[in-house]
UniProtKB/TrEMBL annotation:
Entry's Gene Ontology BP terms: cell wall organization; peptidoglycan biosynthetic process; regulation of cell shape
The protein, known as: Peptidoglycan bridge formation protein FemAB
Record's keyword annotation contains Ribonucleoprotein: no
Family of this protein: Belongs to the FemABX family.
Keywords of this entry: Acyltransferase, Cell shape, Cell wall biogenesis/degradation, Peptidoglycan synthesis, Transferase
Keyword Cell wall biogenesis/degradation part of the UniProt annotation: yes
Any one GO molecular function term: aminoacyltransferase activity
A Pfam family that the UniProt record links to this protein: FemAB
Annotated organism of origin: Microlunatus endophyticus
């Protein structure tokens, strides 16, 4: 079946997302307001009965001095990715965006390809002969993802490139998730490793108190966030970015985003942001102070977010990006070592795919990116 693609209102897009169990927060109309430097539009897929059956947020990034854009759908669109006829979904999208002046389309296929459970990850970390999780047999393979991969290649889409072990310019292909469905709080705690349980207990015994903050508390969060950035050698976002994010997401849903603050004797020792759409909750940004790290505020705030996600009806708590390295000599290995302590699983998505609509401009664009 071929579908018709046309613009939809923000209200129609919000209603469509609300009827789904889970949609990436990057595919909400509110996210367009966060990324205001991009031109944006909400698109809908309509079937032959004129029913809205798919939706996507498109962000248009204009090329310098050329009136053409990269059309980007982060972690989207929301369509039937298990379909045996992805051409019917994606070709109308490409045709529409080409008419709108796009030289290429980039999609973030929200399709899980493989999963590795806690025991498998721990065994890989302990085996010096294993350096990549992708070389280890997964505990689950999604056949629908295999079909989607073949169809995308056949339709001319270019697969994601391995970049820095899984960290690329776009959204992460490798993430770490903690399943929450049908688990009690006690079961979740018992599923964590001994270090995590001990640190959560130590934080409570030390008097760490975790509370929800408000937008007015963002300067406090940002203060220790910039300290974290300096310590961990990454470029921090400005305070205005987080203020815009809170304004935009909360306007769409009063419980879309939360700020968590962990205090010890009036000192802020850790702070995080939490985002939820339907049954999926994400740990978004985190920060901690160098001082008083021994009171384990970071573990305390994570545990609070996990239990709050479960109470809010989430079935997945997403700790976001990891790489597939399990090599102890690789600095990225520490990330999966920390997250596997929660008792969750490593998840690989199909990743971000490009469709060049103007091959010359696309080649120039990729060359520009490679030299940045």
């Amino acid at each position: 079946m071929g579908y018709q693609v046309r613009t939809i209102t923000s209200a129609e897009h919000v209603a469509f997302n609300a009827a789904r169990p889970s949609v990436s927060f990057l595919q909400t109309p509110a996210w367009a307001k966060v990324k205001s430097e991009w031109r944006s539009e909400s698109l809908g897929w309509y079937d032959d009965r004129d029913q809205l059956v798919g939706a996507g947020l498109v962000l248009h990034r204009k090329l310098p001095r050329i009136n053409r854009t990269l059309a980007y759908l982060p972690e989207g669109p929301v369509i039937d990715w298990g379909s045996d006829d992805l051409a019917g979904w994606l070709q109308p999208l490409a045709a529409y965006l080409k008419k709108r002046g796009a030289f290429a389309v980039r999609i973030g296929t929200p399709v899980v390809t493989r999963r590795w459970g806690t025991a498998t990850i721990k065994a890989a970390l302990a085996d010096p002969a294993v350096t990549k999780l992708s070389d280890v047999s997964p505990d689950e393979i999604n056949a629908a993802a295999t079909r989607a991969y073949g169809q995308l290649r056949h339709l001319g889409w270019l697969p994601p490139k391995d970049d820095d072990g899984g960290f690329a310019a776009g959204q992460p292909r490798w993430v770490f998730q903690l399943p929450l469905a049908d688990k009690s709080e006690d079961q979740l705690l018992k599923g964590m490793n001994q270090l995590w349980r001990r640190n959560i207990k130590k934080a409570a015994k030390s008097g760490v108190v975790v509370t929800q903050g408000k937008k007015e508390d963002l300067p406090d969060f940002h203060r220790i966030y910039t300290e974290t950035a300096e310590r961990d050698h990454f470029t921090p976002r400005p305070l205005s970015y987080f203020q815009t994010m809170f304004d935009a997401l909360l306007a769409e849903d009063p419980d879309r985003i939360r700020l968590y603050l962990a205090h010890h004797e009036r000192d802020l020792v850790a702070a995080t942001t939490w985002v939820r759409v339907g049954e999926h909750a994400w740990y978004s940004y985190g920060a901690s102070t160098t001082a008083k790290r021994d009171v384990r505020g970071s573990n305390a705030v994570q545990w609070q977010m996990i239990t709050d996600a479960k109470d809010a009806g989430a079935t997945v708590y997403d700790l976001r990006g990891i790489t597939d390295t399990v090599d102890s000599d690789d600095p990225h290995a520490g990330l999966i070592q920390f997250k596997v302590g929660t008792g969750g699983e490593a998840v690989e998505y199909l990743g971000e795919w490009d469709l060049p609509l103007n091959k010359l401009l696309y080649k120039a664009f990729t060359l520009y990116l490679s030299r940045r």
